[in-house]
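We examine the record.
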Amino acid sequence: MTAKLQVALDLLQGKRAVQIARESVEGGADWIEAGTPLIKSEGMEIVRRLKKEFPGKTVVADLKTMDVGAMEAEMAVKSGADIVVIMGVSSDSTISEAAKAAAKYGAKVMVDLMGAQDPVKRAKEAAALGAAYVCMHLAVDEQMSGVTAEKLASMIKRMPIGVAVAGGITSRSAAELAKAGAEIIIVGGAITKSADVKKATASIKKAMKTKKGGKSKEFKKYTEAEVAAAFSKVSTPNICDAQHRQGHMKGIVRRNSKDVKMVGRALTVQTLNGDWAKPVEAIDLAKPGDVIVVDVAGGDVAVWGELATCSAVSKGVAGVVVDGAIRDIDEIDAIGFPCFSRHLSSDAGEPKGYGGIGVTIACGGQKVRPGDWIIGDWNGVVVVPAENAVEVANRSLDVLERENRIREEIKRGSTMSRVLELKKWEKV
């Protein structure tokens, strides 16, 4: 049996969702899903619009219902939904009532197993309660932590009814899950964030049919080099957005004229205004790829210059950030060494040796610990806590991909305000 491709429209804007649905259908999508965020934003009207636009396609209303199953199922089905999604962690009566209500109008219920302690057991119970499908669903927050949907493959054949699989699926995992026996492959971002939705849909359909996936963009970056590579692909604004506007070092600006990017782990230094001993000593302790981050409490006498930069380059240091002053910027710029600071100053102090290396510091108003990730570009510097690096890197890539899709829609003749429907969300 050939698996069906379900496109999950997890957007906030109905107009964008319909356009993306059109392009995905052209690429071969079988089922169209009104995602939970879309339904919460647009109400049942979006289900009506999708059914009217695609009368020959199966329309799924991902309500994620937890209570009043009959009422919500009937509401969705009367609006045009062929499949209604109920949460598996809801009560038995909620699932049963939803299935009965849907059946009256020739529709079916899919039970989402996200959060179920024993997915196989709950799937058997859902089948007995009248569900036609179960959905093995890897939550977005799990995906961002580096888990991929392929981990669900081993459970597919143990499910008693039709199986849908969702959660960060791309062409590679779609092929693996189809090979494992999934009946419905649910894909969201890999299609909806693509600049060419039709092409992305066709690629995934081909992978499902041939059971051979192509290159994957799945969130699975674990190694130091892979995390660094992910941060190198995104901007510091992307990272700030991914951290809910957190992490930006205020007042710390880039001093290079060339287009250089800085990514690395923090080697922290604390010193006094003009005392350049500890910053220079830190170079000897630095590992290749480290970023030296110096807390001078905003001092205006330089603690870093050309000779320190030459030493840092010889050790493979990735860059320097100084919450204070640096000098010799013309020579540093000629070297091409990433350099960020609060001040420039011709004046350098004396190497007295106060302070410390490898301690928790403050830089640009942000706490920085040894080993935290430091990323710098034209926009400034951000810090990412070491324990959150994989998740933030993945969320930053997600932000970038969403922006790329919006950029593509603007290129087609729209504007940012129209794409995002800003008027709709303005406070009255």
